[in-house]
Every structure is written in structure tokens, then in C-alpha cells.
Specification:
With 266 residues, this protein is α/β, with parallel strands linked by helices. 31% of the residues lie in helices and 18% in strands. The strands form three sheets. Strands 1-10-9-8 form a four-stranded parallel sheet. A four-stranded parallel sheet has the order 2-5-6-7. A two-stranded antiparallel ribbon has the order 3-4. Pfam families: PI-PLC-X (PF00388).
Length: 266
């Protein structure tokens, strides 16, 4: 699969066979996808959501505060100057233009709820209902590419009923996000956890498990970008062979690293 130009990263899933399950792919993703504000302790990305999609990102990590029956995007206590409605709009617009693609979206409640008259799940359902039913995956098992091209697959990381998406709790996830310092032993511990999960994903069951590896980390003494600079170098060296790596959620990925994950698809 060649991804030497921008247009190919926008449509890279067109090269994936229809009968492939989502569980059989290597998928570049971002952690705290919308976290552009809050300075070094909080910022995790530099690209906007649309720029990430254009660059080939297909797993996104969306965190919403439940406030006044609305869903503003937050990272911890820091608002990110966006709302879940904007996320859905950008996502469906991208998929309309690139119908061979699929977006997987972890959706999680963030920070403290305030001044609500309904549950988080009810508010999310209301947002989703503003979009055509066919634009959001509504099956109950991991789909094939043919089932979900042009669709959003929401991975529900919250309690409550929904008539769309899949439970995030069913994924096989590695997220050792607490990295106490930039000392080699702490970076090494983080990298070992990341590498081990990627190896597990490459060797595990093909059609029954969806793997997710977070290469991100943070603490009061180690900010996301500094950790990403180190871990992303390890990732780039490691992802040099074709394998099924599952979804890889990164902070500050560059185009070359995203392309490596795309091109590792078998």
C-alpha cells in the first residue's frame, strides 16, 4: 500500500479488502484527539480533527464534559474550545467525501458533570440522532470493512443504553499513561508496556479481539510532548515490518509515523 501523497492518506482504507474485519488492521490514532489547549501540561496534539483525518488518523479519542445538557470537549478541567456537535459534523463531512474510510471513536465522559437534567448517555444519544442513521454503525459485533465504509464506529466508554456503537470495555487495551519522569527507567517502562501490547496485537486472535495501544503518557514532571518525542522514536523504529498492530493512539504523531502504521497493514 503506497501512501506517498496527501490524497492517498485521505483514502488509505480503499486499499483494505472488503472482507477484512476491523480487528485485522493496523490503525493510526491519537490520544486526547482534541487537546490543543492548556499549554505543555495538557496539550497532546497540534493538528485539528480535520487535519488528523486527512493525515490518515482513523482512531480518535474524544472526551466530553457533561455540562448543562451539552457536551463541550475537555481535557481534565481544561475546555478545548469545541463541542461534540462539531466533532460529529467534521467526522461525517470527512466520511461523505471519503466513503471508503471508517472512523473509530472512543467517547468518554471527562471532568465533573454540572447542571444536567438527563444522563450522559441520553445527551450523547440526542447528539447522535441529529445525524442520518446510516452514518453511524449500529451493529453488535466487530464489522468487516464492507459493513462500515463511510461510517463512524463509536466505542462507548460510558454507562447507559445506546442504539449505536460498541462497548469500549470489550477492547483489549494497554494504557500505562502515568510516566513519573523523563528518566530512562520510566521511559523504558512505558515503552516496554507499549511494545508488549503491540506484540500481543500482532499475534492474537484475528477476528474476535480489537486491540488498542496508547503510546501516550504524562505526569507533573513529564509533559505529553516530551514523552511523545521519546516514545514516538521507539515506535518508528519498531513498526518497520508488516503486522496487525491494532489501533495505536499517539500524542503528536508526525506524517512519517502515521504512514508507517498505515503501510504495515498486511
Amino acid at each position: 500500500m503506497s501512501n506517498s501523497d496527501v490524497s492517498s492518506t485521505k483514502d488509505w482504507m480503499s486499499g483494505i479488502p472488503d472482507d477484512y474485519s476491523l480487528t485485522n488492521l493496523s490503525i493510526p490514532g491519537t490520544h486526547e484527539t482534541m487537546s490543543l489547549y492548556g499549554g505543555p501540561p495538557k496539550q497532546c496534539q497540534t493538528m485539528s480533527l480535520s487535519q488528523q483525518y486527512d493525515a490518515g488518523i482513523r482512531f480518535v479519542d474524544i472526551r466530553c464534559r457533561h455540562y448543562n445538557d451539552e457536551l463541550p470537549i475537555f481535557h481534565d478541567e481544561v475546555p478545548q474550545q469545541a463541542n461534540f456537535s462539531e466533532v460529529l459534523k467534521s467526522t461525517t463531512e470527512f466520511l461523505d467525501l471519503h466513503p471508503t474510510e471508517v472512523i473509530l471513536m472512543r467517547l468518554k465522559e471527562e471532568y465533573k458533570p454540572k447542571d444536567n437534567t438527563q444522563t450522559f448517555a441520553q445527551t450523547v444519544q440526542g447528539y447522535v440522532e441529529h445525524y442520518p442513521r446510516e452514518s453511524v454503525y449500529r451493529g453488535e459485533s466487530y464489522p468487516t470493512m464492507k459493513d462500515v465504509r463511510g461510517k463512524l464506529v463509536i466505542l462507548r466508554d460510558y454507562d447507559g443504553p445506546a442504539d449505536f456503537g460498541l462497548p469500549y470495555a470489550d477492547l483489549d487495551v494497554e494504557d500505562l499513561w502515568q510516566v513519573p519522569s523523563l528518566f530512562p527507567e520510566d521511559i523504558g517502562r512505558k515503552w516496554n508496556a507499549t511494545r508488549d501490547q503491540l506484540e500481543t496485537a500482532s499475534q492474537g486472535p484475528i477476528d474476535t479481539v480489537l486491540y488498542l495501544t496508547y503510546s501516550s503518557g504524562a505526569s507533573a514532571f513529564a509533559f505529553p510532548e516530551a514523552i511523545a518525542e521519546r516514545i514516538n522514536r521507539y515506535l518508528s523504529d519498531f513498526l518497520s515490518r508488516k503486522a496487525r498492530w491494532g489501533m495505536v493512539a499517539m500524542d503528536f504523531p508526525d506524517a512519517a509515523l502515521i504512514d508507517k502504521i498505515i503501510n504495515s497493514n498486511v
